[in-house]
Task: inverse folding
């Protein structure tokens, strides 16, 4: 089953981050930051299946060099809280091969980002050894400013709108489905929420589809959060909402946000090892709550299905009664015509009487 995910966030200095460090980590390369003098070396990291830079037509040559590109971005921004890049994280259908995955990202980046003037630096990552083997994904870092001639132009604030993000999410789903279709696969993805998909199924009267969509939404965890869950620590909804487990807002560098943390850090963030009995009881309560919610949703779906069946039955009954009435009216008309034919009086005609023997008599009784 192909999984859909497409999210976007801004890499900014207000969170203590730099575009040079982020680009070096995602590509698995070494970049020297000319503004700060720091060196970000991630050449020893693995799992990078493909890396590439896509730029608008006519872009200068330095835009295709990773180190020059992101140093130019850093030097173009003077503010301490400057927004440096927009990062997209997208899930790639594991049903596709390596070349098909790269082509999918390349086409989407060209049509949706480079066509608007952005330079996009993207990398396809393989699943981690400890995680889900289907978790192929891509990181796309796009410049906040368009390329204009030999330098960057002014920032386009329209790229920050919710409407634009929704368009990007929708177009990514379309691109994934087109790639799956080219690969001869039947799987498809949908960028809409489960609730929106259920409403559409309800409007179509597709009860089976509604039942299939009655499931918990998937949640996207950052690498650090995934590492914590592998160690058995519990993540709260608040942690996920505010990005605490994923390292949002940390200023200790890219590696802290993406590499698995040490056991002591994981225990500290999760509040310690805890009591095994209490942990088991908590897990059982959570399981019971999930079962209860699932049962409630099932009852709701079944109830909707019953109401739909009732409405369909009423409609069919009304149509049947109307058809029977129409046939009954026709039968009555035929019977009436037949009765009229039967009861109608016959038309009589005068026939000549039998010829008599003997003479005719006049009125006086005499023979003529």
Result:
């Amino acid at each position: 089953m192909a999984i859909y995910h497409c999210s976007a966030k801004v890499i900014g200095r207000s969170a203590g981050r730099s575009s040079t460090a982020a680009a070096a980590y995602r590509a698995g390369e070494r970049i020297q930051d000319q503004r700060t003098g720091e060196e970000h070396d991630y050449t020893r990291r693995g799992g990078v299946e493909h890396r590439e830079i896509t730029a608008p037509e006519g872009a200068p040559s330095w835009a295709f060099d990773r180190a020059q590109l992101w140093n130019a971005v850093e030097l173009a921004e003077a503010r301490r809280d400057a927004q440096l890049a927009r990062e997209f994280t997208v899930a790639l259908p594991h049903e596709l091969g390596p070349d098909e995955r790269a082509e999918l990202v390349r086409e989407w980046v060209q049509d949706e980002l480079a066509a608007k003037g952005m330079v996009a630096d993207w990398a396809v990552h393989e699943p981690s050894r400890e995680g889900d083997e289907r978790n192929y994904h891509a990181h796309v870092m796009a410049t906040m400013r368009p390329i204009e001639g030999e330098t960057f132009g002014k920032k386009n604030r329209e790229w920050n709108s919710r409407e634009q993000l929704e368009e990007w999410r929708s177009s990514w789903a379309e691109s994934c489905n087109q790639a799956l279709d080219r690969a001869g696969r039947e799987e498809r993805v949908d960028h809409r929420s489960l609730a929106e998909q259920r409403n559409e199924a309800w409007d179509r009267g597709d009860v089976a589809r509604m039942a299939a969509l009655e499931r918990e939404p998937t949640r996207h965890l950052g690498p650090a959060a995934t590492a914590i869950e592998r160690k058995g620590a519990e993540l709260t909804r608040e942690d996920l909402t505010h990005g605490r487990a994923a390292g949002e807002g940390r200023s200790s560098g890219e590696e802290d946000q993406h590499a698995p943390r040490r056991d002591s850090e994981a225990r500290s963030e999760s509040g310690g090892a805890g009591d095994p009995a209490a942990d088991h009881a908590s897990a059982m309560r959570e399981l019971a709550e999930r079962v209860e919610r699932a049962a409630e949703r099932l009852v709701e779906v079944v109830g909707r299905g019953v109401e739909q069946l009732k409405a369909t039955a009423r409609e069919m009954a009304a149509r049947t009664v109307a058809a029977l009435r129409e046939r009954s009216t026709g039968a009555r008309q035929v019977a009436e015509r037949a009765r009229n034919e039967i009861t109608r009086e016959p038309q009589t005609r005068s026939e000549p009487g039998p010829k008599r023997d003997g003479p005719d008599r006049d009125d006086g009784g005499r023979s003529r």
The beta strands are 6-12, 30-32, 39-41, 48-54, 83-91, 120-125, 137-143, 147-148, 151-152. The first helix runs from residue 19 to 27. The CA atoms of residues 166 and 243 lie 21 Å apart.
